[in-house]
Amino acid sequence: MTVACRSAVLRGWFARHPHVEITVEGPETCRFGPRTLTEGHPGATITELNDNNPMVCADSWSVPGPLATLASIALGPVALAGVVAGPVMLTTNLADDPQLFATLERYGLLEPPSVDGSAQVKLKCGALTAFVPMANAQREDIEEMYQERFGRSFYVRESVEGPWDEADVLGRPFALYRLRWNEDDGAPLLTVQAMADLAGKLGPAQMVHAFNVMNGFEETAGIPEDITDYPNAPILVEG
User: Fold this and answer.
1) Tens-level pLDDT at each residue, the chain (239 residues)
2) Is residue 29 domain-resident?
3) Are residues 7 and 114 in the same domain?
4) What domain range is 187 assigned to?
């Protein structure tokens, strides 16, 4: 298979893919035959919150940008279950994404979240914390919602114990999330943290994963557990 990519980083990843014979420069994010794979189009969704069949049949597909990807992990399961009770607040070190709500709306979120992105710094890891008011759900039910969506996935994993440290995702192709539950004031509040490497789940690794699903390849093809010697996405810089 021949794959054409606009990004030299993504071409470097596909050059190591076992099912890709040729990688060339192209005008689009990623093209293979008549099919395209892009990032950040309105309503883009993460692979883990889709059935595989529509992706296999699609002529084109789009994955979310970094902020919408982490927000999808943090909010997707509870938005799809219809248990978000009010406005959501996000804090993040990632730049704003104009398509953020278009993605979250696909999962059923009814109003745009407020986003505090004041913590932008030079980094290789994207991080997000979501504060989510809950309705009609117990803690055990919420945990089950996330397990149902992500429990068998390769590239979204739960971090249950230990420090919340970006070292756990740097050089890795997966995102981590962590759930916290607070009902001290009588109003249940779910806090979800999520983080991932910009060259991993927030970058080329996510694109290659979606490419694999679209083509019916094994989901891990061309995506090693250690991506430190793979071409890296640019470092995000403040401003």
Assistant:
1) 999 999 999 999 999 999 999 999 999 899 999 999 999 998 899 999 998 999 999 999 999 999 999 999 999 999 999 999 989 999 999 988 999 999 999 999 999 999 998 766 657 899 999 999 998 778 889 999 999 999 999 999 999 888 999 999 999 999 999 999 886 666 789 999 999 999 999 999 999 999 999 999 999 999 999 999 998 876 554 43
2) yes
3) no
4) 66-197
* Three-state secondary structure of 13-66: HHCCCCCCCEEEECCCCEEECCEEEEECCCCCCCHHHCCHHHHHHCCEEEECCH
160: its two tokens = 């249950």
Q: Let me know whether 86 and 5 are in one domain.
A: no
Q: Is the pTM of this model over 0.90?
A: yes
* Amino acid symbol at 178: R
